[in-house]
Each structure stands twice: as C-alpha cells, then as structure tokens.
Amino acid sequence: MSADTRRGGSRMRLRGLVRKEFLQIVRDPSSIAIAFLMPIFLLLLFGYGVSLDSEHIPLALVVEQPNADTASFTAAFKQSRYFNPVAYADTREAEQALMAGRVNAIVVLRQDFSRQLRQADGAPIQLIVNGVDANTARIISGYVEGAWEKWLEHAALQRGQKLDVPVQMEQREWFNSELRSRNFLVPGLVAIIMTLIGALLTAMVMSREWERGTMEALLVTPLSMSEVILGKLIPYFILGMGGLVLAVSMALFLFEVPLRGSLWVLFATSALFLVTALGMGLLISTVARSQFVAGLVALIATFLPAFLLSGFIFDIGSMPGVVQAITHLIAARYYVAILQTVFLAGNVWSVILPNVLGLAVLASVFLGLTWRNARKRLE
Amino acid sequence: MPAADHMTAASPAANPPDQNALEVGGVSKTFHVGARQVQALQQVSFRVRHGVVTGLVGPDAAGKTTLLRLAAGLLVPDAGTITVLGMDATTQSLAVQGAIGYMPQRFGLYEDLTVQENLDLYADLQGVPELARGERYRELMHMAGLEPFTKRLAGQLSGGMKQKLGLACALVRQPSLLLLDEPTVGVDPLSRRELWEIVYRLVREQGTSVLLSTAYLDEAERCDEVVLLHEGRLLAQGTPAALRDTMRGRTYEIAATNIEKRALQYRIAQAPGVLDSLIQGDHIRVVMVDNSPPNLGILLPGVSGIEMAPVPPRFEDSFVALLKEKSGNEEISRAPLADKTLTDLTHADAGKPIIEVHNLQRRFGNFYAVKNVTFSVGKGEVFGLLGANGAGKSTTFRVLCGLLPPSGGTLRVAGADLRLAAAAARARIGYMSQKFSLYGNLSVVENLRFFANVYGASVYGLSGKQGTSRINWALEEFDLAPMAEYTSGDLSLGYKQRLALACALMHEPEILFLDEPTSGVDPLARREFWSRINALAERGVTVMVTTHFMEEAEYCDRLAIMAAGEILTMGTPASIKAQARSEELREPTMEDAFVGLIKAHEQQEAAA
Fold first, then answer.
1. Residue A172 or A235, more confident
2. Are A181 and A340 contacting, i.e. CB atoms less than 8 angstroms apart?
3. pLDDT digits (tens, 9 = 90+) for B267-289
4. Structural domain boundaries, residue A123
5. Which residue has the higher pLDDT, B115 or B581?
6. Are residues B75 and B125 in the same domain?
7. Do B124 and A24 count as a contact with CB atoms less than 8 A apart?
8. Which of B326, B342, B357 is the last residue of a domain?
9. What residues are paired with A60 via a beta bridge?
10. Across chain B, what does the average pLDDT equal?
11. What ipTM, to 2 d.p.?
C-alpha cells in the first residue's frame, strides 16, 4: 500500500465512521435526548423556574403605636417590589409567623418611634431576620437598610431640612442593570449544555462501542487510532455546535438576554470549549469501558464541576482559596467567564484572551493524553 | 501514537507455499483481574496451514479468545512470537489487520444500523473500492441468504442471520486469513450447518485460510485440523481423524433390557477398565481405558440381557481421554447422593404428572416468545427443552418458575396453579439459572448460608439447625469443603456450577429447573454434573433442563425441540432421532433430527 492510497483510504474510512455515527445518533433516542431535549429542559428550568433574585420577600411589620410617621414609613415598604409586608399586632405573633416560615423577617416600629427618630443616636426600628439562609438574610437586611435610609432622606426633604449624612452612596449596576439573574444564568447554561454533549454524550457513546463489542471489530480493520478519535470528534463537534445554535437562539429570542459582544467571538470561543469538552469525554472513554462507569465519571469529573465550580451559579471569588485554585482545572470556568462577558459586556479582550488561553491549554492537555492513552489494543 | 500503529511496508503477499498462515511460538499471556493473576496462555506453540480450516477447540477459559485476539494484534503477548501471514502481529499490527478478516464473539455488528449500512461501514473501513462493491455485496448477501433483508436493522435479525451478517462484514474485502471467535455459539443447528458450508466454500473457491474457535466438540470433527486447548495449555494438535484413531477399538454401546439406564450407567462407570460412560438415548456409550475387549462378566456381574456392540470413536472420546490422562483419571462418577436428610421421593406416585402445561403463551408486546406450548412431565423424569437462543426455552422456564406471568394457557406445577399460588409452587422448586446467580464477592459458605437463610427465614421454613446441616451436607456432597472460604467469583467454572447446584438444592426441592446448566464447562465437569443430576432423578426428583448441546439431549428421558416459541416435536431421544431416519441416513444424530424439523417447519411457514 503506498502512502497515497493510504491517505485516500483514510478519507474513505473517516467518511464511513462519521456516517455511521450520524445514523446512530438519529436512531438512538438517548443521544437526541441528551443533545436536544436536555438543553431545552435546562434552559426552560433556569430561564423561568430558577431565579436568584430576591423579590416579594414576605415581611412582618409590627407597629406598636401607629401615627403619621409610622404610616409614612410602612407605605414606603408597601410600594417596594422587594417586599410583601404583612401587618402583625404584636411581636409575639410576628415571631410565630417567622418560626412557621410564613415570613422571612420582622420589622418592629417601637412605641417611641417618633421620639427616637428625632434623637441624634436614636434606633427607632428593630429588624429580625431568619438567618438560616445566610445569603437571603444579607439581602434582606441590605434592602431594609436601604429602604430606611431612603425614607429618612425623603422625610427630611419633606420637612424642608437637609439630612445630615456624611457620605451619600449611589448604587449603579453595570452590565446587568436590571439585575435579572436570567441574564447571567442563561449564558452560563450554554457551558453546561456543551459539557453535556461534548463530554457526557461522547464518553458514553464511545464506551458503548466497547460494551457492545463493536470496538473490537473496528480495531481489527486498517483504522488507525487517530482515525477512531477523529471519527468521534467530528460528529459530536457538529452535534455540539447544533446544540449551541439552539441554546443561543433560545437565550436571545426567548429569554431576551442581550448579546453585547459579537456572534463570531461567541462561536469561535464555543468551538474551542467544545473541543476541550470532547477531549475530556474521549479521555474518560480511554479508561472507562462500560457506559455506566463512563457516565458516572463524566458526571462527576465534568458536569458537576461545570455546574458548581465554573462561576455559573456560585461566584468563584467568594470560594475558599483551595477551591478557587481547583477551579483553574475546570474548563467550564474559562468558558463561563467568556460567555458572561460576550453576552453582557461585549468583546472585552482583556477578559476573553486569558480565558481563551486557559481553554487552549486544557484542550491540548486532554487531547494529548487521549492520544497517548488510546491504543489499538484491548488492554 | 504508539509505534505499532504506523504502517509498515509489508503487504499481504500471495501466500508462499512454504509459509504458514499463522505461527504461534511459545506464547504466554497473563491478565490481572484486580489483585489476581490469571494465566490465560502458557507456552503455547502451533501452526495454522494455508488453505484449510483449523479449529481452536476447548471449553471456556481455555484461552481461545485470547489467542485469536493476539493473532489479530489486539493484545500483546508476555512472551513468544505470533507471525500472521509472514508479519509480526505485535510490531506490524496495522498491516496484519489490513490483511485478515476477524469476527469477534458478538459479531461486531451495529444493531441500530441496517444490514446494508453495516456492510457499507466495513467496506469503507476496509477500503473496498466503490466500483467493486456492488458485485461483492451481491455475492456476500447471496452466500449469507440475506438478500431480502438488506434494509432490516441488524438488531432485528435472528441469531443465525446476525452471525452470517457478521461473517459477511469480516469478508467484505477478501481476507487471506479469517479469524472467527466462537461463530456458532447459541445459534440453531441449521444455521450452524449453513455457516460451515460458507466457510468451506471460501476455503475451496478462494483458498482462504480459516482459524475458528469452538466449544462444541462435535464441530471439531468438521475441521481439517484441530488445536486442542485446555486451561491455557496446548493439549494436542492434529487432524480430527488422527486424534480419533487413538481411540479405535475402545468404544462400545451397551444396552440392557432389565435394568434402568441410569442405574446401568452408574454401574458401568464404577466398573474397572472403563474410562468414560455416557447415557445415549436408551443405551450407554462406553469408552475403555485400552483396546482389549471388555469382559461383560467383569463389567456388569450378575446382570443379564445385555447387548454390547462396538461403535466408531468420536473426537470427544479423545478429548476426554487426554483430559483424564492429565488429571490422573480421578473418580468423577459418583454414587447416588448420599443424603440422609433428603427424602426419598421414588416410590410415592412415581411417573404421575407433576408439571402440566396447556396452551401456554407468553407475549412481549406483539412478539410471541412462547406460543401454544403443551406438555407434561412425570415425577422423577428428566425432561429437556432443546433449542437455539431465542427459541423460547428460557421464557418457558421463567413462566414455570413463577418469575413471569403467562399471557395465556394453564399450568400446574407440583399440584399448584401458578396463576393463583405461585409462592406455594415456588417453595417446591429449585432453579439454577444460566449465569449461576451466585454472589461473586461472597465466599462459598456464605453463598450457601445465604440461600439456606433465604429459604429458611422467609419462604421455606429451614430452621437454624436444619439449615446448618444442609450447609454441611452441601460442602461434603459437592466436595466444596476445601474451598469453603474461597470467594466464589474466583472459582473455576466447574466449581461455580457445583456451588450453584448446591444452592438450588438447599431446600430439597421436588422439581429442579436447570437453565443451560453446562454451557461452557469442559466435558469432564459436564459429565460430573450429569452424574449428580442422574442421582437426583434416581431418587425421584423431577428435572427440567434447557440446553443447546445436542449431546446433552441424549441424557434426557424425554425432550421437546423448540423453535420460534413453538414445540416442533416431543418424545424420547430415540423416537425423535428415528423421525429423521431415511435411506441415506440410517443412523441419524440428534442434530440431523433437529435440522430436519427446522427445515420442515420453515417450509410449512413459507407455504402458509
């Protein structure tokens, strides 16, 4: 066999493998489910079902001695979209409501509210917050403080005097000015979906070939191992890009997430991440030869980290140092950073480029290891 | 990339006459399974000649698959060399793979691809030029009889069709050497015959060299040459005739009119000078240790009405002789179970129907796994269900054991209607499944204790004391005491089979269901197993057994031959064989009878 016919044969062999893979994808409901139904389900779940915003927090209001001042203050709460205030007659009753979980916090306006208000170091209101969920508790106390300051300012203005506050804080949210959690969850989800297709699905279909004994037959053909690897890379790359188009369309048109960067940057970086994910999937399949093991390993080594350690939901900056260090090994971390930047901020190269570099390093490590470990042997 | 994957300049040359298709020289191979080492092959050397069919024959765990994988370049030997068509299988594996055809045990088919798509894939992978394909496909599909099915998914083919498609895929680019790993396992005898015809046509018309592995000893006789393997060692190599001839003058058939066949077999097995004895329908086949004629007075003292006639030797005789030589001819036939705790069921209503099945049906969706099956089994009878994979044997069994509800028909087992009182019936049956249902990571004694407990604690009322005595009985009776603390997963197949049988007998069942109990074990272990079964039957235990070994069917009192969920015929082994008798075929085998029945059935189906 000359080198030339070998190359021609290579094209034929690859074509055969890719065609076979697509026929299998089309006929196997579980591939379709992982590649298309799961993304849609996840997007709908996170787009509509899960919200990290705190709005309409149930709140108990206890006014011990109603007067004009208290009425004006409670009106401020009632207007706020953050709270759903419920009036309680006394503190005991409100505490019971807190215990029962009907309210998340209690605001008590004491009898001497008006007097305290006019004293220099007065503390006219008491705030009790359910601290079980520390995050929500912080948000609530922040909101109540904000509402209190706003009301003080407002009241002072009405009385025609200037309030004596040394520093005025003016908050302004950039990039996600409406503070919609959907706007950063949905781009992050794209990373999860690509991990599913690239790593989980690919590891499982590869191990399926071992499990069903078809790999043994494939290996005893003139296929080289690089052709076997390419024969899986190409179809699942195309499938993954299809999943990307689906996810991005849903993000832009259904959830109306803004895309401030350019589409080509989004697709180019996504392609890089997909290759990294495929590398992980193929690397797993060189070790795991049953679908069960491959699925479990892929879930634990790729999917869960992409969920928890990528900054998709939990901010990496607030993780403990050790965990922060570990996130550098998680490919999704770089991709989530890129996605959130491209969607919400624009083509910020100073953010995109280092992350692209991180992805490129991981991709070459995974593919390199796959290359080294994959042997045309059964051992 | 490993160096071995690079293409080397060697080409699958025209076969030089002085060179062998395959040369195996001093090959050893060890696998590591957890902390254990399994020596799959030890110092094996043999040659496979060009243009003939060589059989790699041996029971499970003999090393057959390992050898074929080594030859295909899928494994690297620990020691020794393998030369395939003049190329080294380790360093030139890619070139070797370009020149051979290989069919793994499960045929290597993509079940979600159609017949045509499977062919296309392998044609692409093997680099068959587009122009040559049409002609080649037609030829292969015609040969495999798959022409009408090219658009069918491979997963929806029958076992025999899958096997032929697998073969077609391995042949899509004419290989010089064809390696087939147990190509005939679990397929019906007709398909087996067809496969052999295809293989011989290849050899005859295209000069292909073939190496195929098989656990069926009767298939060895169809090979031009055989390589006998046992536990990773080479036992013998030669033509089947030469191996058989060593047994000439040592084989006889004995029938007696006034002694029951199982008792007769037991007595013969104990007699001096007897190497092997088997129940064969209504007579006993005997192999002597040497070729001095046996003396009936010594063989069966005090038994009258004996007829003895010499019969031609078989390949299996020489295999058994070789194995026994190796193991020092230890006692394998045993006395009827010396079990004082087991009740003797013999005299209480012997022969009365204990299993009655009428018009049994079992449907899975639109598919009838069992349709209109009717039979009855008498107390103390050994009743066999013979058929290929997918014939409905296991489904029938599961229904009878109350594991699957029937879709239609009536059935009574041990006097209980299974639809109404499955638990009551189950207390009186023992079930040994194909895979032995042992807990691989428990020890032998723990497995026994577990099964005793299961029966004792919940269903069968084995109290603590009785349970302990049953465990002691099992350890002693099945020679398991020396390995009581061994992890059962580490036992050899023969011992696993013994343990599984012991577990199924813990609660002294009246009926024993054995689902393919001996597939894969060597002939000695199979004989030992059957001597135990015979002893149980002697004491009145009813035994139902499924098998696809034709030979095993001969051990049964009566049997039913099944195909596609139906019973084709039922009767004693002798009467079933007699159905196939004709002018050309004076002494038909069970396989001849089976093949005849399947052909007749297919013609009937086609006519309807």
1. A235
2. no
3. 888 888 888 888 887 788 899 88
4. 57-158
5. B115
6. yes
7. no
8. B326
9. A86, A106
10. 83
11. 0.77
* Of residues A5, A13, A213, nearest to B104 (C-beta): A213
Q: In the predicted model, is pLDDT for residue B338 greater than 50?
A: no
> What are the tens digits of pLDDT across the range A177-227?
555 667 778 888 888 888 888 888 889 888 999 888 898 899 888 888 889
**A184: closest CA among A306, A314, A271?**
A314
Q: How far apart are CA A235 and CA B253, in angstroms?
A: 64
In angstroms, the CA B538 to CA B72 distance is 49
Same domain, yes or no, for B303 and B319? yes
Segment A322-341 mean pLDDT: 91
- How far apart are the C-alpha atoms of A15 and A67, rounded to whole Å? 82
Do A347 and A231 share a domain, yes or no?
yes
Q: Is B294 inside any structural domain?
A: yes
Residue with tokens 């781009």: A187
Domain range enclosing B261: 246-326
A187 and A119 in one domain?
A: no
Residue A77's CATH number: 3.40.1710.10
Q: Which of A109, A126, A158 is the last residue of a domain?
A: A158
Please give the pLDDT value at position B170: 92
Q: How far is A218 from chain B (nearest CA, A)?
A: 8
Q: Do B113 and A24 touch (CB under 8 A)?
A: yes
In the predicted model, is pLDDT for residue A3 greater than 70?
no
Q: Is B356 on the interface with A (CB under 8 A)?
A: no
**B24 vs B539, which has greater pLDDT?**
B24
CA separation for the pair A327, B406 (Å, rounded): 56
Q: What whole-number distance in Å separates Cα of residue B243 and Cα of residue B226?
A: 9
In a domain, B18, yes or no: yes
Backbone angles phi, psi at A105, to 5 degrees: -160, 160
Is B13 inside a domain boundary? yes
Q: Looking at residue A129, what is its pLDDT?
A: 85
Report the C-alpha gap between B505 and B471 in whole angstroms: 10
Closest CB to B127 among A9, A24, A212: A9
Cβ distance of A217 and B94 shorter than 8 Å: no
Is the domain of A328 the same as that of A187? yes
Q: Which region holds residue A124: left if phi is over 0, alpha if psi is between -120 and 50, else beta?
A: alpha
Report how far residue B309's alpha carbon sits from residue B252's, in angstroms, rounded to the nearest whole number. Answer: 6
In a domain, A170, yes or no: no
Q: Where are the alpha helices (DSSP H) in chain A?
A: 3-27, 29-32, 38-44, 68-79, 91-99, 113-118, 134-159, 181-195, 202-211, 214-219, 225-249, 263-287, 291-298, 304-308, 321-327, 331-344, 349-373
Q: Is the pTM of this model over 0.90?
A: no
* From B97, B107, B113, residue closest to A221, measured CB to CB: B97
Same domain, A339 and A219: yes
Nearest Cβ partner of B74 from A20, A214, A377?
A377
| A66, A105: one domain | yes
User: Chain A contacts of B73, Cβ < 8 Å?
Assistant: 220, 376-377
Q: Tell me whether residue A167 is in a domain.
A: no
Interface contact B1-A212, CB threshold 8 A: no
Q: Kindly report which listed range (A70-79, A243-252, B329-338, B459-468) carries the lowest average pLDDT score.
A: B329-338
Number of domains in chain A: 2
The CA distance from B519 to B382, in Å, is 18
Backbone angles phi, psi at B220, to 5 degrees: -60, -35
Number of structural domains (chain B) is 2
| Domain CATH code at residue B29 | 3.40.50.300
Residue A173 lies in a domain: no
Asked whether residue B20 falls in the same domain as residue B140, the answer is: yes
Look at residue B342 in the predicted model and tell me its pLDDT.
45
Residues in B closer than 8 angstroms to A5, CB to CB, are: 127
